[in-house]
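Hi support team,

I submitted a single chain yesterday and got back a structure, but I'm not sure I'm reading the token output correctly. Could someone confirm the output below corresponds to the sequence I sent? I've pasted both exactly as they appear in my results page.

Thanks,
R.
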Amino acid sequence: MKDSTVFKYSAAIKKLAFTTSEWGCVTVYFVVPEEVCGVPYVIYYIHGAG
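Hi R., thanks for writing in. Yes, this is the structure output for that exact sequence:
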């Protein structure tokens, strides 16, 4: 249950494919706020195979 409204910034979702020697092609997604000034902070999330 939500007690108050949550403001969500406009963002772009970017996708980049990396070719690895061990796992083949791995796709990485980036969610980037549209109005970024300077170098933004990074939230690093990794999901296990489960």
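A quick pointer for reading it: Residues 23 and 49 are 13 Å apart (CA to CA). Let us know if anything else looks off.

Best,
Support desk
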